[in-house]
Amino acid sequence: MKTAFSICFVFFCLQSLACELNEKIVSLSGPITMLLEELNLQNDKNLLAVSKFHPLKEKFKGEILAGGLFLSKKTLIKYSKTKIFFDKSREFKNLMKRSHIKNTIEVDTRDQDPFEAFQTSLVKLSNSLSHCHKVVLALETKVTGIQKKLQLNPFLKKSIYFLGTFRYGKIPQTVMANDGFVLSLKQFESYTGYPSDFAYLTWSDKILKTLVEHKLIAVSESRSKEIKISKISEKRYNLSYRGLLTPGIRQIYFLKELEKLSFR
Q1: Could you read off the pLDDT of 3-49 as tens digits, one per residue?
Q2: Which of 2-11, 87-96, 178-187, 244-253 has the lowest mean pLDDT?
Q3: Maximum C-alpha span of the chain
Q4: What distance in Å separates the CA atoms of residue 119 and residue 125, rounded to the nearest whole number?
Q5: Would you state the pLDDT for residue 67?
Q6: Which of 1, 24, 36, 216 is 20–30 Å from 183 (CA)?
Q7: How far apart are CA 87 and CA 89, in angstroms?
Q8: Strands 200-202, 174-176: parallel, antiparallel or unpaired by DSSP?
Q9: In Å, how far are 22, 99, 189 from 18, measured between CA atoms?
Q10: What is the pTM of this model?
Q11: CA atoms 31, 34, 39, 45: torsion sign
Q12: pLDDT of residue 9
């Protein structure tokens, strides 16, 4: 009887020390929401709401909000005493000030590659976590392993990425030249993409005609658990993956999957 009680007591203690949120929060930040999912905290009782634009794998049990600037005054008042995470935005920051909401955390991942954005998200979220040391350490080790493997095996050395999909032979209008996972690819000395200092821009026909050896890859969000690829022509492809446009952990996993693809 005592043994059974001891086992139950230990089990209860382990359960009570599981990784959890130590305060009520709302996540209007894509990187934070995806990190919470990776830490298996997407249904923690203290995660009250997330943005409808965040590509969670499973149905969220809390409230789904219509993003940042679209929040009503009633909603803002409802969560005025809750810590609100949001992606860097001057407009949203001003909205919070006008609404007298002070408990906010701004998450700035601009100009960061996925691995930097992951670390930024982790730092911003850390004060809201309890008993998560082992889980976080395991995730950091996993991410470091992915990063090292990518550095040892450069791939898609000549490739250009567009937002959207190839339709009827037309190239999507916007190029991702210096943002997200492209910033990781650009760290390979052998990589060349679309020549520009802008993060995103409309492509030039004149420039594209000089890059005939490059693969043209259109990328888009997907709810699918796995990366989807469709070949349009010899050097044109459509790729979709859940969270590939969200800075941080999901883009790291996208790079991992991209490295595996045979067409590279």
Answers
A1: 554 554 444 444 558 999 999 999 999 999 999 999 999 999 999 99
A2: 2-11
A3: 81
A4: 10
A5: 65
A6: 36
A7: 6
A8: antiparallel
A9: 11, 35, 43
A10: 0.90
A11: positive
A12: 47
Sequence-distant (≥ 6) Cβ neighbours of residue 48 within 8 angstroms: 24, 25, 26, 62, 63, 79, 82
**Is 110 within 8 Å of 86 (Cβ atoms)?**
no
User: Under CATH, which architecture does the 20-150 domain have?
Assistant: 3-Layer(aba) Sandwich (3.40)
| Alpha-carbon distances, residue 191 vs 197, 227, 262 (angstroms) | 15, 22, 18
Pairing relation of β-strands 159-163 and 215-221? parallel
Relative orientation angle of helices 249-260 and 30-38, to the nearest 10 degrees: 70
For residue 176, pLDDT beyond 90:
yes
Residue spans per domain, the chain: 20-150, 154-260
Work out the percent of the chain whose per-residue pLDDT is above 90.
71
